[in-house]
Amino acid sequence: xxxxxxxxxxxxxxxxxxxxxxxxxxxxxxxxxxxxxxxxxxxxxxxxxxxxxxxxxxxxxxxxxxxxxxxxxxxxxxxxxxxxxxxxxxxxxxxxxxxxxxxxxxxxxxxxxxxxxxxxxxxxxxxxxxxxxxxxxxxxxxxxxxxxxxxxxxxxxxxxxxxxxxxxxxxxxxxxxxxxxxxxxxxxxxxxxxxxxxxxxxxxxxxxxxxxxxxxxxxxxxxxxxxxxxxxxxxxxxxxxxxxxxxxxxxxxxxxxx
Length: 258
Ligand code: ADE
Fold this sequence. Notes:
Elements: E1 8-13, H1 22-25, E2 27-34, E3 37-44, E4 47-53, H2 58-70, E5 76-85, E6 95-103, E7 124-126, H3 129-145, H4 147-150, H5 153-158, E8 166-173, H6 181-190, E9 194-198, H7 201-211, E10 215-223, H8 229-257
Parallel strand pairs: 1-4, 1-5, 5-10, 6-8, 8-9
Antiparallel strand pairs: 2-3, 3-4, 5-9, 6-7, 6-10
Helix pairs in contact: 2-7, 3-8
Bound molecules: adenine.
């Protein structure tokens, strides 16, 4: 992928902190409002881009992704944000790049199998391999070369970020903040290859599948989806999630433009 493909990259996050700094980094930013959201069009590290905050949940994310494609002409979408861990090897401060996404609260039984999106025949929606590989590479470069330079030592220590890793695999989305060990353990039993839980990615995945738009999702793990999740989440989002998102998206754009 390079600048000759005339890529226009849509960048979605649910919350301000998950995208902080990107709009400010844009060259020639132009803000447009539509459907109660602000879309900022401009250039990010030589990539034509549109940044938007979806707010939380699948409907909000689906609406945002649809408008990005249909009204603002994006050709590719990246979602960046935080998630709860869905696997014991996936730690707070790690990054998960999705290979596929599933709606864990989709259940139209007995009409359709659990998790299947009715009348698509699909439980899982795959991300674009090229875009995901570039994103995972950008995330690995960031953790290896820059994390210690951009985060204060106290945050590195508090969240044990020295060990941070990139994982690739399945992310599940639902209109629920998962905050109990019983709930996340049940989901893990039902979906053994689960890596992370969040509230938007699979909705973006379905929209992009239906519209034929390549997309990927990056999530920084903010909590373990257990009883401590809400406290951990707020602290983490404020101090760690913003620099992660900013620098990984910067590196992604530099790779895509290169
Ligand atoms: N996003 C971040 N942490 C989450 C959790 N525990 N459940 C759902 N979405 C999340």
